[in-house]
Amino acid sequence: HGEVRVARQVSHPNVCRVYDIGEADGLPFISMEYIDGEDLASLLQRIGRLPSDKALETARKICAGLAAAHDKGVIHRDLKPQNIMLNKRGEVVIMDFGLAAVADSLTGQEARHGTPAYMSPEQLKGSEVTARSDIFALGLVLYELFTGKRPFEAKTMQSMIDMQESRQFSSMTSLVSDVDPAVE
Questions:
Q1: DSSP H stretches of helix in the chain
Q2: Which of 89, 112, 114, 173 has the highest Cβ tally under 10 A?
């Protein structure tokens, strides 16, 4: 019910529309827009990375969808390539607002919900989650979109925090020669 309540607040072409919640045979279900396409994670795994022009177009649409959510006070909290769909016409749609919240900030155990590889340092520590945390995740997604690689690969939460805080990752242009330095 919470996911539907939060997701219905955002109406934008780059955000999946959630219509209603119901129940069938005692099991709850959510009715939402059908996206005929592939999630960004699968696409990147299949092709490596998007060509620079397509990556730039996709990045703009992800940013527009996330901005629409933030304009309504919605924090996604789990922005990652698996939650971004590209339909067969090339449109970009942010999905899965299951962890989203309407708040200025979340703290404590509530803050730690999400996918560690795409969490901001403050989210990993459980200190605070705001729209800025989504912006950090967006940066990680965009890095992967343009390079085909994650900026941080860690086996433990602590090593992920350490890598993020030290900001030790390869520049985009060192990995991909045709990335516009302005994008980086």
A1: 2-7, 40-47, 52-71, 121-125, 131-147, 157-166, 172-175
A2: 114
